[in-house]
Write a structure and sequence with these properties.
By secondary structure, the chain is an alpha/beta fold. The protein has 3 domains: 2-96 and 197-248, HUPs (Rossmann fold), CATH 3.40.50.620; 101-177, no CATH class; 261-348, 2-Layer Sandwich (Pantoate--beta-alanine Ligase, Chain: A,domain 2), CATH 3.30.1300. The protein is built from 15 helices and 9 strands. The chain has helices at residues 6-18, 34-46, 74-81, 93-96, 101-105, 115-124, 141-154, 163-177, 185-188, 192-195, 199-214, 226-238, 269-272, 274-287, 293-298, and strands at 2-3, 23-28, 49-54, 86-89, 218-222, 244-248, 309-317, 331-339, 342-349. α12 links the parallel β5 and β6 (244-248). It is globular. 36% of the residues are buried.
Length: 353
């Protein structure tokens, strides 16, 4: 069953709830692989009914990221899910982020104009969510924080007519005119969030919207995106959302590479194996009694070569992402490496063998 509108999904879920059936949700951005299917199987095994969302969320992409290139393979995704008793929810961006009157008023950047200048011009013209009587007080409070956020996201990004920059324009209008869920900065200003400002705001917002649309009893997330998983668990707890988050283990290929939709971009998958090699070597050293994080970190560099751009290798607590100086069974090793234009992430919990 394939649905493209919120109304269709709500009507179907309402019928299931009236029958006393439990509902599971598997949020995805499509380009499904065996890792996604493991989440679907977990939901089908635990719940009476399962909803699989397929939506490339523009709100979680920055201006220099791969929103335009991100694989969109809905027909293949539907084929992969055929034979399974699931409802596929594949909405458009307009369905998930309907334009408001305010969005229609937001002047998008002109040709060659930076996004930050367009936002300042927009605020100075007096059209803003925090509209005030004096132009001198227009950039205060929430609006000032909003401006700082967008400046960080855009990094003086110049606009042209490329699809990628159209996505930036979409984000500008959407952010100015929509309610966003903003998780605690303590959880989002590190690891992936450090190089992707605003990313987890977009993630939490779309996940919260999906929770409101589907109203699942359970939601299934993979541990490969462990920081995302921890942040979503925090959001659910803080906002009293009545859904149980089910964490599912990382699915790897026979070579140890964590499955990811972005693996399709790799020109040489052998180079990508470095992430798992680094993690396994650190685990072996830890099992042999080395617990000093600085020493464990040093073991990684012998695996890296000129084709690997290490973004981070960090040891953090599995519950609150606090930095660790001494590794223990509650420590997760996080790694992000860029290989060419492809950014890959992985992680490993240093629990006792």
């Amino acid at each position: 069953m394939l649905a493209h509108t919120i109304k269709e999904v709500r009507e179907q879920v309402k019928k299931w709830k009236q029958e006393g059936l439990s509902v599971g949700l598997v949020p995805t951005m499509g380009a499904l692989h065996a890792g996604h299917l493991s989440l679907v199987e977990a939901s089908v095994g635990k719940c009476d009914k399962t909803v699989v969302s397929v939506f490339v969320n523009p709100a979680q992409f920055g201006p220099n990221e791969d929103f335009d290139k991100y694989p969109r393979t809905l027909e293949e995704d539907v084929r992969m899910l055929s034979g399974r008793d699931v409802l596929i929810f594949a909405p458009s961006a307009e369905e998930m982020y309907p334009s408001s009157e305010l969005a229609k008023q937001v002047p998008l950047p002109a040709q060659g104009e930076s996004v930050d200048f367009a936002l300042i011009r927009h605020c100075e013209e007096g059209v803003s969510p925090m509209r005030q009587s004096s132009k001198s007080t227009a950039l205060t409070g929430l609006l000032r924080r909003l401006l700082c956020k967008l400046l960080a996201m855009t990094k003086q990004h110049k606009m042209d007519n490329s699809p990628q920059n159209n996505a930036v324009s979409f984000n500008l209008s959407t952010f100015l005119s929509s309610t966003f869920v903003v998780p605690p900065r303590f959880y989002t200003d590190k690891l992936c969030g450090k190089s992707r400002p605003g990313h987890f705001d977009g993630v939490c917002t779309v996940v919260a919207k999906l929770f409101n649309i589907v109203q699942p009893d359970y939601a299934f997330f993979g541990e490969k995106d462990r920081q995302q998983l921890i942040i979503i668990q925090k959001m659910v707890k803080d906002l009293n959302i009545p859904v149980e988050i089910i964490a599912c283990p990382i699915v790897r290929g026979e070579n140890g590479l964590a499955l990811s939709s972005r693996n399709k971009y790799l020109k040489n998958k052998e180079e990508a194996l470095v992430l798992n090699k680094v993690l396994l070597n650190i685990k072996a050293c830890y099992d042999n009694g080395i617990v000093d994080v600085e020493s464990l970190t040093e073991t990684a560099y012998s695996f890296l070569n000129k084709n690997h751009s290490l973004e981070y290798l960090e040891f953090r607590d599995k519950d609150d992402l606090e930095i660790k100086k001494i590794a223990d069974g509650n420590t997760i090793v996080f790694i992000a490496v860029k290989i060419g234009e492809v950014r890959l992430i992985d992680n490993l919990l240093l629990e006792s063998s």
